[in-house]
Amino acid sequence: MARGSVYRDYSPSGRRRWRRSRIAVTAVVALAAVAGIGHWAYSTLVVHAEDPQVRAATARLQGFLDAWETGAARQAGSYTGTPAYAESLITSVMTNLKPSKAEFTARKGRKQGSREVRIPFTVAMTIPGAGDYTWESKARLLLKRGEEWQVEFTTPLIHPRLAAGQTLALQTQARAAVLDTRGDTLRAPSIVGLVDPRSGRGVSGLEARYDRQLTGGAAGMKSVVIVDRASGRAVKRLGNGNGNGNGGGAKGGVPVRTTIDPRIQEAAAEALDGVRKNAAIVAIDPATGRILAAANRPGGMNRALEGRYPPGSTFKVVTAAALLKAGMSPADPVDCPVFAHVNGQRFENHDQFSMPGGATFADAFARSCNTFFVNARTKLEKASLHDTAQAFGIGATWDVGVATYDGSVPIASSDNDKAAATIGQARVQASPLVMASIAATVKDGTFRQPVLVPAAVKKPHHATERLGPAVLSALRTMMRATVTEGTARVLGDVPGEAYAKTGTAEYGDQTPPHTHAWMIGYQGGRNLAWAVLVEDGGSGGADAGPIAARFLKAVG
Description:
Layout: E1 8-9, H1 39-49, H2 52-69, H3 73-77, H4 83-97, E2 101-106, E3 110-111, E4 116-127, E5 131-143, E6 149-151, H5 155-158, E7 166-172, E8 178-179, H6 189-192, H7 205-209, H8 211-215, E9 222-228, E10 234-239, E11 256-257, H9 262-271, E12 279-284, E13 291-297, H10 303-306, H11 316-325, E14 339-342, E15 345-348, H12 361-367, H13 370-375, H14 384-390, H15 415-422, H16 432-444, H17 469-484, E16 498-507, E17 514-523, E18 529-534, H18 540-555
């Protein structure tokens, strides 16, 4: 720090902790013979540096700066020819910036005639949230007849980039936005997440995960801006950390671009309007895995992507694939009794229905006959469901660009465990995203890992198992029959020829047990796979089905 300069703590009361004179005085010591400087040049330098009028004007300016530095706006105004104007603007600047430290220093002045001195000066502040901030300005002092030197106060005196009617203020640097596929701000609160208004940091969702990208590494950083005093509108950003508008090294935030289609997202959100239970809808593109919509009601938890639930009978798509791989055919005759028993444990069909003789595997799938699938466990090995689930990507770690729950299908630990797993119970768990991906895999024929933020995905998961053409063809036939003849008939008149599977998943230990309602599916006429979940919602066909129908009709 230059000799004669100090930092002072600024306080609104104008109190200084300590102070000493900071007038810049140049002492010129030279000899006429040194370096060839002649007597004329030496005399000129000494007269300029020690001119009593320059010293007096500089002392007067430093008094003004000392008062401004401490926030004593009225005192500062007394050094000017327009005290009320000076007091008002200085009060505005110091109130807005609230510097914790300040150092204002007059530099070397120059005379302009006999009654005017122009003096540059430096303003240095430490501003909470913006850092050390410095700028240069110039003052014009006039010697009034019979009076002391007077500071000519103008708006640019405070800062050279200010114009009349403007002031300085702080503004939190704007975060970049989370965007949909149109490049508009994404309207999906559960995905986007929240920002702490005090710190400016993302605390949930994509706002938290990509906080550094969205803020440019300057979360909560403030910038000095020029503000119109009448409207309060920011006119120009000067930056943070210095006074030349270069931004103090903090880069601007970069938007996060997602795969959400705003039209499909809106349809999903509207389909959940009026639903009184916790619910979610996910839609993905089977050809790419791109997540097109993820809606939750109510907001907050992103159950659409992160929820962990027993999938119930929607998991029968995986079980059916395992049975088909084991040699069964959709036309094979099957039994569907009201009850099935495994080592003393009773399984039953929803509403305790049964199917008459002559029913087929395809019929049992379309009607969602639990007892058939439980009894069919004998055709499967302990690892069959686990291995088949891998063809749908379940149980791996997905690199989606956002937090997700990617499902779990453990190897059966007992006969009862395997029996319950065939109908999506026991230890089988999935998110709505996982279940939508199951439908998408049937549609496309290949598991495409879901993606929400493509630029962030480095290692997408690739399935270690594949479904053969015959298995895929049979699954498609049975999912279509579920709409035309089975438990998903509510989708019979939706656009795009729906293929679906319903699910009613038991949870908890109440008697009778509570159930989640599920429906998953895809559209034959377009690249759209989806899943609907209603927590504690009753049955898939009766409770999740109407929501799915509203969604698909809105999508068109």
